[in-house]
Design goal:
The protein has about 425 residues and is mostly helical. Helices cover about 75% and strands about 0% of the residues. α12 packs antiparallel against α15 and α13 runs antiparallel to α14.
Length: about 425
């Protein structure tokens, strides 16, 4: 009976351990492949055009909202609705990684398309697992725990980047392709262990048995859009992340033009930057509850705007190596603060019955602002206006988004969320 109570009503520590394991494990394989494949394929003689197509691997993360209603509607209640999805998807990910490790794709140019298909499947499974994990988190965390929970989500991305895009590349150089990919498979499998003792309660606590919504696919997909002030909120998400993302996109080319080596840039933006993101994520998790949601968005948004403007200092002649580290790290740190606050409010706005669809739609808008959209054309802006112009525009966008918070977030939160802290 005691074990049943523990799994049904887990402690905050157990919840955070579970989410750390799930969020980190889903980003490690993607980070590894995004970092390793361009290098390895080029060494094997692949064309730049083929390597450029690796960008298509991000499509599942942008389009996952299209199949999120299926994750909400179907599931095995005996194991737990979202828990069953996570176990299935992560197990399939492990099997796919094992197969990818055995492929002779990297030995011959002709075999590489088969590997790319396997990698695409890994990314697709990871993106789909993220739908179920986000929905599980919405139902698992209390409103008071969501700040820390989303700090873990943001930190999980950074930790996955360090492990998959940094440490695994070092191991790849020493251990070879097959052993390295099989190590990824082993870690992905181990990440499931904290999930097994957890007994998901969504069918008995969040709604009555048999009361799971059976709305049509289209109705579930678009349900969030029909809520009051939902469209302004989605527009705010896009604006809130675009300014910093377009500035960060152009900062690495600026460092190259300043003469920094690849190793120096890797340390600055990869290792030190990722550590700053982890610290910022956990700090935001601790501050969101005492500050409140709306105030956190404002304070962290202002810091983000200042950090984006600071990126322009090297264009004005301030190029001391220490300064470059400070402005680069500061921007990543501030962005992690802002993103964690944003993720927390996004979670507040979800209907627990269709949490996968609600959160994934917002997350897809976030990804558009973070990876495509205006950030994708930042290079064209830099070509016309220079690096300073990109950073200045990014600063203005950040300021506009902060100015909109008191109006847009207040009106939408009053109707889309029942959280009194906002």
């Amino acid at each position: 009976m005691r074990d049943s109570q523990f799994t049904a009503f887990p402690s905050s520590a157990f919840k955070f351990l579970l989410l750390t394991s799930l969020y980190t494990s889903q980003f490690i394989p993607s980070a590894f492949f995004f970092q390793a494949l361009p290098i390895i394929l080029r060494q094997r003689g692949e064309s730049l055009e083929t390597i450029g197509l690796l960008g298509l691997l991000t499509l599942p993360w942008m389009l996952k909202f299209l199949w999120a209603p299926l994750i909400d509607r179907y599931g095995w209640q005996r194991w737990g609705h979202y828990k069953s999805w996570i176990i299935l998807l992560q197990s399939l990910m492990v099997l796919t990684l094992i197969v990818c490790g055995t492929l002779p794709a990297l030995d011959t140019i002709g075999g590489s398309p088969l590997l790319l298909q396997g990698v695409f499947l890994v990314v697709l499974l990871a993106a789909t697992q993220d739908i179920a994990t986000d929905a599980l988190a919405v139902n698992l965390l209390t409103p008071e725990e969501r700040g820390w929970g989303n700090g873990i989500q943001s930190a999980g991305r950074a930790i996955g980047g360090i492990l998959g895009g940094g440490i695994m590349l070092l191991l790849l150089n020493r251990l070879g392709w097959q052993t390295s990919v099989w190590m990824l498979a082993g870690f992905t499998l181990l990440a499931l262990l904290p999930l097994f003792p957890y007994r998901e309660m969504n069918s008995n606590v969040i709604y009555s048995a048999g009361d799971r919504p059976r709305s049509s696919y289209l109705k579930t997909l678009t349900a969030f859009l029909y809520r009051p002030q939902a469209i302004p909120w989605l527009g705010f998400i896009l604006l809130y992340v675009t300014g910093s993302s377009m500035a960060a996109t152009m900062f690495r080319p600026l460092l190259v033009d300043l003469g920094l080596s690849m190793a120096n840039i890797g340390w600055m933006t990869g290792i030190v930057g990722s550590l700053a993101a982890i610290i910022g994520s956990f700090l935001a998790g601790a501050l969101i509850r005492p500050l409140g949601r709306r105030r956190s968005l404002v304070v962290f948004g202002v810091l983000q705007a200042i950090a984006v403007l600071a990126l322009a200092l090297p264009t004005l002649g301030y190029r001391d190596p220490l300064l470059l580290y400070v402005v680069s790290t500061g921007e990543v740190f501030a962005r992690s603060l802002a993103n964690t606050a944003l993720f927390t409010v996004m979670m507040d706005k979800c209907d627990p019955k269709i949490a996968g669809s609600d959160y994934t739609l917002q997350s897809s808008v976030f990804i558009v602002g973070h990876q495509v959209g205006i950030p994708a054309v930042s290079g064209f802006i830099a070509a016309k206006l220079g690096y300073f112009g990109v950073f200045a525009i990014g600063f203005v966008i950040c300021c506009i988004s902060v100015a909109l918070i008191p109006k847009v977030v207040k009106r939408s939160q009053a109707r889309l969320s029942t959280n009194p802290e906002i």
